[in-house]
Amino acid sequence: MPWDYRPWGCGGASKGSCNDGWIQFEICEDGLTDKNYFEATYKEACELTAYLCKMYGLNPKGTTSLNGVTVPVILCHADSYKLGLGSNHGDVYGWYKRYNRTMDDVRNDVASLLAGGNIFPTPTPTLTPTTGNNEVLGVGDSGSAVEKLQKDLLKLGYKLPKYGADGDFGEETLAAVLKFQEDNKLEIDGIAGPNT
User: Fold this and answer.
1) Which domain covers residue 168, as residue numbers?
2) Which residue, 14, 65, 129, 137, has most beta carbons within 10 Å?
3) Angle, CA of 144, 145 and 150, to the nearest 5°
4) Cβ-Cβ contacts under 8 Å for 132 (sequence gap 6 or more)
5) In this structure, is residue 194 part of a structural domain?
6) Could you tell me which of 176, 174, 196 has the C-alpha nearest to residue 186?
7) How far apart are CA 71 and CA 58, in angstroms?
8) What's the chain's average pLDDT?
C-alpha cells in the first residue's frame, strides 16, 4: 500500500488517533519463542523505520504534537493507547519484554543506523543472576543454577528432549519455562525469577 494511504492502524481514543499522520506497519509475531526470528524482524523494522525517517526528514528521537499531546516520532500501538491516541492493544511490548528490548532501544537503533552505524551484531542483554532465593535466569544464562532449573522442570514433567539439563538456558528451556508459567497462571515472560 502506498505510504500516503491512511490506514486503520491503531484506531482512535479520547484524544484522537495516531492514524492521523503516522506511517504504520505491522510486525508479524511468531510464537514469541524464536530468538532468531525476533532479531531478524527487529532488525528489519529498525531498517525500514530508518529508511522512512531519512525519506521524510524525521528525527527518530524527536517528538511532535497531535491534538495538544506530545508524541514520539516513533511509537508502537501500546504507546498510542497510553497517550489517548489509539485503541487498547499491547503491541509490541509483550514480545520486546521477552527479549529485553524497549521502544527507546528502537529509537536509539534507528538513530544509529541513520548515523551510519550498525545495530547488529548487538548481543541480546541477559539478566544477571542474583544470589540466594532471588535468582533470576533467562535466555543466554548458563551454569549450575540453570542446570538445577532444568532438572526441576524435568521432575515436574516439562520436556527438554534435545538438550536435557545441560546448564544452558536456550530455546528449549525457554519453551519449558513459558509452559510452566502458563500452566501455573504466572506472568508469561520466559524469565525464571522468584515467582516462577
Assistant:
1) 132-183
2) 137
3) 95
4) none
5) no
6) 196
7) 13
8) 83
d(CA 19, CA 29): 22
Do 76 and 26 fall into the same domain? yes
Q: Is the pTM of this model over 0.85?
A: no
Can you say whether the dihedral through the CA atoms of 174, 179, 180, 182 is positive or negative?
A: positive
Separation CA 82–CA 125 (nearest Å): 26
Classify residue 193: in a domain, yes or no: no
Co-location of 76 and 54 in the same domain: yes
- Residue 142 placed within a domain: yes
Integer Cα distance of 98 and 92 in angstroms? 10
Q: State the total domains in the chain.
A: 2
Neighbours of 45 (CB within 10 A): 18
Claim to verify: residue 88 and residue 174 sit in the same structural domain = no
At 129 the pLDDT is 41
Residues 54 and 145 in one domain: no
Q: Is residue 196 part of a domain?
A: no
Cβ-in-10-Å burial (0-12, 13-18, 19+) of 160 comes to middle
